[in-house]
Amino acid sequence: MRDGPWLRGLRDGVPIALGYLPVGVTFGVVATQQGMSAMEATLTSIIVYSGAAQFMLVGLLAAGTPMALTVGLCLLLNARHALYGPAIAAYLPASPSRLSALAFGLTDEVFAVALGRLPAQPAAQRPLWLAGVEAMAYASWVGASAAGALAGDWIRSHLPLLAESLPIALSALFLVLLLPHAHAGRRGAILVTVGVAAAFALAQHAAPGLLLAAVLGALLAGIGEVRCARKSS
């Protein structure tokens, strides 16, 4: 008996889920470390569902950044998804309402998996396949965030060195994600991102420089992914 598109999507989303588990736990721990309750941390993952934006949100709120500026920076960081959506929608024979629902689950990793496997799915089954991938990724992220938030006090009490090192997890994740793409076609974007961060750091404004570099890097990465998608289609 052949699997349906939903089950195939769930299965194809397992690698994403495995990658989300440690980062989601880290977010839950860091969020509670910065003053959020376990419920607030979990709701952030349920509603925002963006690792980079969530870590930025926690850091900005902990630093006392005005809410309007915090929301604006998080939206700007996620602006690359406005490029991801049309690239994926071109493969989906779905109604606008269904596309809107699928858009919520379109993370960087889901986009990467969909680029490679969505065109190979039968046209009529593509929305359900993508929904399966997104469901697996979303469940793992929310579940991991909740686990990290609930275990935060225990980790801080019994594993203090681990708790102190967790805030750098997102930077490490960005580096891991960046290195495989450091080839000739992406060097310009990488140099721009690193150059902006370095320039602000030398001017004694490291924090806003990192935020601006993160936004630029996200936008440039989104543009690069869409260009690759167009070339392969």
The span between the termini is 31 Å
Percentage beta strand: under 5%
Percent helix range = over 70%
Number of helices: 13
Radius of gyration: 18 Å
Average pLDDT, to the nearest integer? 80
Number of strands: 0
User: Could you describe the largest sheet, including whether it forms a barrel?
Assistant: none
Please provide the ordered H/E string of secondary-structure elements. Answer: HHHHHHHHHHHHH
Structural class: mainly alpha
Large-scale geometry: globular
Low-confidence stretches: none
Overview of this structure, please?
The protein has 233 residues and is an all-alpha fold. Helices cover 78% and strands 0% of the residues. It has 13 helices and no strands. The protein has helices at residues 5-12, 14-33, 38-47, 51-62, 67-77, 81-89, 96-104, 108-117, 126-158, 160-165, 169-178, 187-202, 206-232. The longest helix has 33 residues, at 126-158. The protein is globular. The model has no long low-confidence stretch (mean pLDDT 80).
Question: What tags apply to this protein structure?
Answer:
globular, 233 residues, mainly alpha
